[in-house]
Amino acid sequence: MEKSAAAVRFGIIGGGHRGVGTSRGDSFARALAVVGATVTAFYDIVEENARRASEAVAGARPFTDWEAFLGSGIDAAVIASPVNCHAEQAVGCLERGIHVLIEVTAASNLEDARRLVRAARAGARRQAGAAVYMLAENYRYLDEVELIKRLHEAGRFGEVYFAEGAYIHDCKDLWRNPDGSLTWRGKGLLGVYCTHSLGPVLYLLGDRVTSVSSLANPSELYDPEVHQQGNHVMLMRTAKGRTVLIRVDHLSSRPHDMTHYSLQGNRGAYRATRTESRQAFVWLADEHEPSGVRGGCSWHALWDYAGKYIPERLAVGPEARRGGHGTSEYWMLLDFLKSIREGSSPPIDVDIALDYTLPGILAAESAAQGGATLAVPDSRQWVEA
Predict the structure, then answer these.
(1) Are residue 150 and residue 293 in the same domain, yes or no?
(2) 3-state DSSP helix/strand/coil percent for the chain, to nearest 5?
């Protein structure tokens, strides 16, 4: 029998944090309430955080003991802990038959990625009702990304051969705790956090990366005690022969530019602006002025096409924005719950999660080697998993 959203009992890993940055666990608790799901438990290694988060949700209990949390009767877990904990905690949940919706990135190294695949596939081999694993790449669910996806599927861009993604976000404030000590981010446990820039691009293209070359700059430019790569510029080739350019920059002092994407096809193009106006534009050969050496064509407003291509996105109420990233968490949670109810594969399953993650792991190694071009493995070929 299918479970309603309310019947799925969620536990949230990471919540109630009031120090550096914001608590994604709390954001998910708000978004889960909108889709009618029930949060019954919060886990955090800091007792005060777990208690504070649970007090904000009626009926939720705080936990600092990992095994007690897993045994508390939850059906699904939202993992919103530091990146270096993601794979281990996901494996722990999957081995207990607990569904997993996990914040990005999926893993911070190849060993953890393989462990994650083994756990996810072991669950899939079990009988009906096996645990669902889904990566919570919310930028893939942005309305603008979905609008471009549908324009592309309608053939409006022709054959797309180039794509770009950029996530430029000054995060230096997250490097240190109030007492001056380094946070997990400041200690370099983040890796190349490329899923917000790369994930939507791969979703738009229906493709995966096969090789990557990356150059980076040192974070010591801003803080001599933070020893990690910053401002990664990654050049990628895909399985379908496309060229992808990705920039991931948590280092640079400047206005944020966290949702910049572009596509180039032989019959059209799309670009998001890099200014605070957040405008986005398209040029479509089947509708607009011809392109040529002397110019003559112009950019046209993307959102003029929203009513035709994403009417259901425009129709949702303001409560769907409670997750904090437009309506992206709302649509993402609906997909996750649908997979749980139907026992179906989620849109961002373990292999697609690693399509978004592994290029970043290899990009870090490439930058360490001065920009060497490295092959990106396909987790679907990991037969030992």
Answers:
(1) yes
(2) 35, 25, 40
State the pLDDT at residue 21.
56
In this prediction, residues 67-77 reach a mean pLDDT of 98
Q: How many CB atoms neighbour CB 237 within 10 A? A: 17
For 149-170, give one letter per residue: b (16+ CB within 10 A) or e: bbbbeeebbbebbebbbbbbbe
Do 98 and 153 belong together in one domain? Answer: no
Instruction: Indicate the Cα dihedral angle 272, 278, 283, 287, nearest 10°.
Output: 140
Dump pLDDT digits (tens) for 309-328.
Answer: 999 999 999 999 988 788 99
- The CA distances from residue 338 to 7, 36, 146, in Å, are 13, 13, 19
Same domain, 243 and 116: no
Neighbours of 343 (CB within 10 A): 12
Specify whether 86 is located in the same domain as 188: no
The amino acid present at 248, given as its one-letter code, is: V
**Long-range contacts at 277-286 (CB < 8 A, ≥ 24 apart):** 280/144, 282/151, 282/156, 284/156, 284/157, 285/158, 286/156
Give the DSSP H or E segment for 204: helix 195-205
Residues 306 and 235 in one domain: yes
Q: What is the CATH number of the domain that holds 71?
A: 3.40.50.720
Q: Are 315 and 23 in contact (CB under 8 A)?
A: no
Question: Which pLDDT tens digit goes with each residue over 231-265?
Answer: 999 999 999 999 999 999 999 999 988 889 999 99
- Same domain assignment for residues 235 and 306: yes
The residue segments making up the domain with residue 85 are: 5-137+331-346
- Our count of domains for the chain comes to 2
Length of the chain: 385
Instruction: Say whether both 131 and 262 belong to one domain.
Output: no
CB 161 within 8 A of CB 243: yes
Distance of alpha carbon 289 from alpha carbon 299, whole angstroms? 10
Secondary element (H or E) of residue 368 = helix 350-368
